[in-house]
Amino acid sequence: MKKALLIASAADHRWFAISRDPARPNHLIDTNEYVVTNGNDSILCDPGGSEVFPAVFAALSEVVDPRTIQRIFSSHQDPDVISSLGLWHDFNPQIKCHVSGLWSGFIPHFGGEDNTIIGIPDEGGTLMLGEAPLTIVPAHYLHSSGNFHLYDPACKLLFCGDIGAALLPDVHASLFVEDFDHHIRYAEGFHRRWMGSNTAKKRWIEKVRELDIELLCPQHGAIYRGADVKRFIDWFDALKVGLD
How far is the C-alpha of 12 from the C-alpha of 26, rounded, in Å? Predict the structure, then answer.
């Protein structure tokens, strides 16, 4: 069963990572889900596939009242990211899903109604968590043609979807990167093939180098913290990816 772990807090913000399910079947990729909460307002980031909904819901309920989940942030369109949408909508028919407008006609096939999806414009924007702003950072063509990340300046945390992902061999591995040089070997092949453009990569890196980041939180693998955040960005900057 997945567990929810507090990974950051500042002011009234609390970030939890929901991860590491030892009961996960081997034919399914392991995923990390994240929830940020402020009082009675919570946003669930990449809630996961329909097959992990019971585990995510149970773990989340240990730390957050699930009735406070009024909004979902979906970094992109993949089933391991958002195919649980219909089940979340069954739990709360008023729930809204923020996702690239590019996918607003596709994701409803996972569930919801005609007003469930709120399309994010290509340039990104801001989501309010209580009275505090979270920045929506564009990451288009890095794994997905319509792709966004979410930055919390209060916690100095960037939820970065599939960027930073590592396909670790052991689901019991630490949630945090402990040995960067050992860890990054599990990220290299994924980034070379799944990140489509060096031009897009350079644009993303220019944006995130301007941010004060202490935690870089991907959907797969382990979380980069402290000095490993810059090490990852420098490594990614030097890596040739995609076709251009």
Answer: 38
